Amino acid sequence: MTQSAPFSQYQLLGPLHPERRGHLHRAKAAWGSATLAELIEIPQPYSPAGQHVRRTYIRGARSLLQVHHPQLPRALDLADDQEDWVLLAYEDVLSQPLAFPPSASLKAAHQLTRQLYGALAALHSQALLHTRISEQALWIGAQGHPLLEPPALAEQALNAEQGPGDRDPRFVAPEVQQGADWSPQADVYALAATLWTGFSGQSLPTAKARQQGAGLPDLSPALQGSRLEQALTLALHPDLAVRAVSASAVLEQLGAVPQAAPARPTSADAQPAAAPAGASPSAAAPGSATPTAPPDRAGRPQWITPVLIGLTLAIAGGLALRGWMPAAADAPAVTATVPDPLQVQPPQPAGSVVPPAPAPAPGPEPAPEPTPEPAPPPERPVLRTDVVVRPEVNVRTEPGGSGTVVTTVKQGEQLEVLGEQGEWSEVRVAQGGAEGWVKTELTLPLRSRAETQEVIADLQAGASVELGRGVYWLEQPLELTNYFGAIRGRGARESVLMSRAARDTVTLVGGDLRLDQVGIAHIGATPAHALHVSGAQVQLSQARLSGAVRDRALEEYGYGLWLNGGSSATIDRSSFEANAYGLYLEDTAQAYITASDFSSNREGGIYWGDQSGGELSQSSVGRNGAHGIHVSGTAQPNIAGNEIFSNQGRGITVYGDAAPRISGNLLSKNGLQGAGVQDRATPEIQGNRIRNNVQSGLAYFDDAGGVAAQNEVTENRKVGISVTESAAPTLSENQILRNGESGLVYSDGAGGEAALNLIKGHANPGIAAWGTARPTLRDNTVLGGQQSGIVFADRASGLIEGNLIQNQALYGVIVTDEAAPEVTGNTLSGNLKGGLLFKRQATVNAYGNVCENNGGQGLGLELDPTAPPPSVDEASCS
């Protein structure tokens, strides 16, 4: 049954998943194309809530229009000209549901996993979540490619009004089941659960069952012990702090696709395998050798083309495609004899038999008529050779952002420039031969080898140099010893030293180097560094260091700038991008950094280790693949006045025995905590704004301590400040406001003191303590919570003294289970259910408390008969 959408150009043919909210439909466009259409009806479109839903959906749709990945249906059209409906149209390439074969080879499973996590990484790169990954979300395209269906944008926009709807609990991460918002790590979990289900052939236990001890089913023998199994296990870890932080992290854990030796005939004596069903009877004769052909323009061996034709005929002849096939360019070697593509029979109706080719009539063969050789197309002149200087650049069919993406090239790839049009260059990719258009500002001209050799000779002779605009390609690492001079350029993105050598691009041992408006890029596959400075001084002004990679197997990392041997660096207005770590300091190295940017590094923006130190100020550390800043060892840097945001792990992580000073920073929208402190670290955290982080604003673990004072800890999705294990910090004069769960939580055996803090507006208790926690809570103000002000449970103890607990929806203070804090000198007023409540086996130890204007009893006792006898003075909330 069809129905008309509220947009005349699309006719809906039915929901893709009828069993759940039908936002995504098969549809037919007015011009005849098959499409997918996601349709959202805006609830109460003229209300503020309705307008919020509309804006949220349109913002997500516009981001999705920028995503182009071969494993995702491409978003084509956003129709938002009506107030009460919005429609997003996609190309309909979802041919049939993906069915996992009973036992996939390691190579095929690895390839499928990389393809689907690549699609997920493409979504996350535009700050988009999928939220609906399960077996139903995996498809096969018409050409045999695996596909991930579009993300549930409509459902996400409506969640605030209607709730998230039912989800299969096997694919829902534990933190989401416990009430947390969906996150990129939840998508990572859902895809890993889906793949594990397919590769094992067994349903996964739910996250709750796994937390109670249920194990994962065994994968097929071919996958056991592989890097694939390790990557999926990490992606499925119930603990967010351990789970892979992103889809990109899973891809890096997977590494390269395992290569199998091709099984193809290599001599005239080789016996060919049976021809595939549906192949033309004009296949090559048995015993004929398979010639080796050069690759075609797309980079495929030419023998793949007739194989694809044979497969197409098989499908047209009525074969049911079972299981999934990898993309054609990655297809495994075929052992069947290959038909001549010029003699292939046309597709036959399902169930028909392809007749054999008629035998030629007897008699002499006529002499063939000579066929003139076609003239080769004239070779287009190459204007110059350019080098890609951004991490990834799309080559499009035409100038302008609307052209179809032909291929994607990475930093360091060379392009032959054939022509120019405005801001765009027409290019031919040197490796592979693809042609198209790129934006000119994303490339630089390649300087001649003679020019580069002259620069190297001058530097090694101790002279300062001026670089022109372009890429200076270093065939070997540039090593400078006891060099005192400068390298100056036209701009960090205009003058670039680049190398893919297996060692560091530039090394300075001793001396004093100044880099001014110069970029250094390492683009090799080994974990070398862009700039390594040992026992020397370096000054960076408007410089850019990029491209240093990591190697998980070797547990080695590449750094944009590596300082050791007591080196020091002064860094101003510089950028560190797309490295493993942007800046790495060890031993006693020092770095003094102002107004610089550390972004999109895979492990972290900055790592201070050992006894290193220095200062970071007025800089941004954002969108890094793990934590923004690491401080370890006994490092004591001063981190002041920076913006530390949107890192996939913590904004700042402090561990070892480190004692940094962290002041005046904005730590926001990080994937874990704004700041996390562990081991025996004792940082001073003062005057920061810590807000909108996915987990806690500030968290202490292990035996950590230190001081957190005068911070604004607001609107983090979980707890404002969490203190766990044996940590015992001093928390003073902080404003802990409107966090998603509690304001301050102590658990396990945590302790320390919280004094003079303002804790306001929480959905859970303002302050909570459980386990064997033993905090001292003194002179805090706890206001306006949706539950009780302070709750002690389990066997928590400690001191609750001199606090003002006011206007809670339940009680001022609850002490329950076997908890035994001393409760003294507190003022409890305006709490709707009552002032003090002791329950179960709690120890009642209350003196000098004042209860006023509460909605129930000032002091309530709901104790078990076997509870210790209460100890209360007559004036305490009587």
> What would CATH call the class of the domain at 10-255?
Mainly Alpha
Low-confidence stretches: 259-367
User: In total, how many beta strands?
Assistant: 66
Tell me the distance between the termini: 71 Å
* Estimated radius of gyration: 32 Å
Number of helices: 10
Fourth-level CATH superfamily of the domain at 10-255? Transferase(Phosphotransferase) domain 1
- Which quaternary structure do these chains form? single chain
Helix content: 10-25%
Domain Protein kinase: 10-255
Organism: Deinococcus radiophilus
Pfam family, one: SH3_3
Biased composition (Pro residues): 344-380
Describe this structure in words.
This protein has 878 residues and is an alpha/beta fold. Among the domains are: 10-255, Orthogonal Bundle (Transferase(Phosphotransferase), domain 1); 384-445, SH3 Domains (SH3 type barrels), CATH 2.30.30.40; 448-616. 13% of the residues lie in helices and 32% in strands. It has ten helices and 66 strands. It has a 33-stranded parallel sheet that branches. It has a 17-stranded parallel sheet. A hairpin with a 2-residue loop joins strand 13 (414-421) and strand 14. Helix 1 (48-64) packs antiparallel against helix 3, helix 2 runs antiparallel to helix 5 and helix 2 runs antiparallel to helix 8. The relative contact order is 0.04. Residues 265-291 have a biased composition (Low complexity). Residues 10-255 form the Protein kinase domain.
